[in-house]
Amino acid sequence: MQQKKKTHFVPVFTSKAGACLTLRNWQEVGVEALSYYLHELLMKPGMQLFEYLPDLRAYCGWQGRIVLNASLLSKGGDGIYSFRSHFDGSTIRITDDELFSIVLKLKPDIVVFPSCFLTYLSEFNQLAPNELKIFIVGNESSVKFHTTNFGSYLIYDQKTAFSDFLRSLKKYDEKSVYLAGEFDLLQLEELVAHGIRFIESDKPANDAINGRIYTHQGDIALLETQMAQLHEVIDAECACPTCEQKFTRAYLHHLLLQTPLLCQRFLIQHNEYFYLQHIRSEDQA
């Protein structure tokens, strides 16, 4: 019988919630991979800085697996990818050639390209290093493209029932799949059982900054008033840095109200650890 491949959890470092943690915080949680969205990097620090550095790792300092996610880039009728910076309002424009050159310069372990890049990539794929894992945003064209070097990147947008989404994954059985979306713990179990290789999600961090915290007894709302009277750790079975420090629900409730930026770091670490351990436990089941 064919051995099931390991499922890897990939948090998003360049999101508002993900950026609340330092690299050391992520290491303490036990995360082995981080996702950096290319459009965010092109806004800040900008490509000019990368011209003076050997690669993305030299800039960010992360020693684990690096995912460079360019899935949100969209091409206009002129064949140019363009987007507006939310820092200074400037418009950033890059061509297919520039996109590919940027990826080769940054040297990620994994790259996710938009589906419109497939035609270009099919012609110039031989220029990519063999160790670079390439995923293409999934559509009918990419499914039919039988180059085994390319995996499929799929996004679950919750517009369809999860059961229907799972059934739709069958067409990708012959490909390595990188999946992004907001998945609850039960959905995670099904995805791991399905053999999904990579699961990217910002949900644990977003839930944490909004006070929604995971426990083995179900989610709790830390901002509810009764939490101020609960002098127990978030989860007695959890070994995350936050629970290991014995911070109580009452203390974290007060901290989230009075010093939210500090508290969010503790809560994100807890949720990310809990999410990661749930994937690993299902992976070993």
TrEMBL record:
<protein>
    <submittedName>
        <fullName>Queuine tRNA-ribosyltransferase</fullName>
    </submittedName>
</protein>
<dbReference type="Pfam" id="PF01702">
    <property type="entry name" value="TGT"/>
</dbReference>
<dbReference type="InterPro" id="IPR050076">
    <property type="entry name" value="ArchSynthase1/Queuine_TRR"/>
</dbReference>
<keyword id="KW-0819">tRNA processing</keyword>
<keyword id="KW-0808">Transferase</keyword>
<dbReference type="GO" id="GO:0016740">
    <property type="term" value="F:transferase activity"/>
</dbReference>
<dbReference type="GO" id="GO:0002099">
    <property type="term" value="P:tRNA wobble guanine modification"/>
</dbReference>
<feature type="domain" description="tRNA-guanine(15) transglycosylase-like">
    <location>
        <begin position="8"/>
        <end position="113"/>
    </location>
</feature>
<dbReference type="InterPro" id="IPR002616">
    <property type="entry name" value="tRNA_ribo_trans-like"/>
</dbReference>
<dbReference type="GO" id="GO:0005737">
    <property type="term" value="C:cytoplasm"/>
</dbReference>
<dbReference type="InterPro" id="IPR036511">
    <property type="entry name" value="TGT-like_sf"/>
</dbReference>
<feature type="domain" description="tRNA-guanine(15) transglycosylase-like">
    <location>
        <begin position="144"/>
        <end position="280"/>
    </location>
</feature>
